[in-house]
């Protein structure tokens, strides 16, 4: 926890859980990515945390933006950036949203199948949009990621040339490829495996007269939770080595899309203990209920995939295992039960609990009024 967050929480009087983001940490993270891969453009994944203060800061620092919807595109444009600094990175788009993005001036679109290409082609023709670029996302093994991605996004690598050829025939620019190695990826070799595939697809299309120009290397860059993770510089070195290994002196344009790695460690949630109980007299494990749960910011505790660092004002006292749960009348609102957390035996109702490294995927995963609980409040300092 930074001194700035500590001071803010010390002086806070409002009730209810809140997520506090230190913008100085966000700025430092952006600078690290920029230094680690100086020839790669950073497209911040807006979905991680779209707070206007974060977007404005990153825009001023030169960041581009990876957007999943028209609303996110509008949020990025509201910072004053030009549309050429925005990618419509969702492979699943309504045709009216494609049209809106084109009208805003966005020209870079993700695809993973021919029907999506056809939607973009139709709208580009109707609007008269020129130089519309598409990049095809291919499926990639997410081994080593704490939050592996499903097969929802991307196509088999052998399909990608066909998808991009179809774009070329429709008058779109077959611009490049993208992949994602899985969220919270600690295996730096994952990018090498993906770039092996990318270089092969580049070669296949070159033989067919189509010269790809860009590789979007996605996100996956981790933030520190309970385990140490490699620094941005280490990822940069590994990625650059893989690029030169597979592309030689003809390096493509490159993009990265950090989200969690940009803002995760910049945020802390302050919550409160609502209840502590046991399910039987013989039960050795206490249940600790907080005023925040899966439905109000902690959705990534699903299957206990993300295990946040937890601090209390009684740290240092004797500890015992606890199940951690949220306050709602929903039986799935349990964060950690399979592997309980060791928390102080002296922990009491009304105590404050700090959930660290929660700057990403918390406010945006919070429901609007489920069970009458307010969405997770947030502030940037």
Fold and architecture overview:
It is a single chain. This protein is of the alpha/beta class and 381 residues long. It is elongated. The chain starts with a helix and ends with a strand. The chain is built from ten helices and 18 strands. Belongs to the Orn/Lys/Arg decarboxylase class-II family.
Question: Can you describe this structure in just a few lines?
Answer:
With 381 residues, the chain is an alpha/beta fold.
Q: Estimate the global geometry from the Cα principal axes.
A: elongated
The helical percent reads 25-40%
Largest sheet: 8 strands, mixed
Distance between the termini: 13 Å
CATH architecture of the largest domain: Alpha-Beta Barrel
The CATH class of the largest domain, by name, is Alpha Beta
Outline the low-pLDDT stretches.
Answer: none
Strand tally: 18
Mean pLDDT: 94
What is the total number of structural domains?
2
The tally of helices reads 10
H/E series, N to C? HEHEHEHEHEHEEHEEHEHEHEEEEEEE
Radius of gyration computed on alpha carbons: 22 Å
Structural class: alpha/beta
Percent strand equals: 15-25%
CATH superfamily of the largest domain: Alanine racemase
CATH topological fold name of the largest domain: TIM Barrel
